[in-house]
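Quick log. Single chain, no ligands specified.
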Amino acid sequence: MKYSISIFLIVNSIFISCYSQDNSSRILDIKKMYGEVNKLSNANTSKQCKTGKNTSYEGFDENSEQVPFEQTAELCHISKEYSTYRAKFCGYEWASETIFYLKNNKIFFVFQSTGAESCSDEYRTYYDINGKIIKILNKSNECNGDTPSISSEIKDKEEMKRIQIDINSEFSKVVEMIK
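-> predicted structure:
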């Protein structure tokens, strides 16, 4: 009995160690790809970009006058492998900018910067090669009006799911706007 428990613990610790190493290795790969995209984007004057926009209307509340807000999207083919989608959305007292980084048409990293009134957040979302989120980092100002400076990793499954839904929704909007 002790022997089988020991083997179970050893196998599980190896699995956890390999899984953790795989994610760590993937995140290092993502950082390298992110650097490549930025380097190519800055050096590539022949990158092909396509833009789109639409207007949404918001008011202070549902009974107030609806004010128009321009939403913009951009798709840039940086190289044969890499492309980016950029979304700039805003409304009544809020704004967000999201950049989706893709390699071979698969998202590997998403950077989001959001703000509403005095609150600001930045999210860095890392994906495995199958498109599953492996890590979300957050930098916040805790609604004090300053630049975001308090960093943390999002580990709560419900919060991660909410962020994933937001990312998927924004990506769908961007793709639709660029068609």
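The chain has one domain: 2-178.
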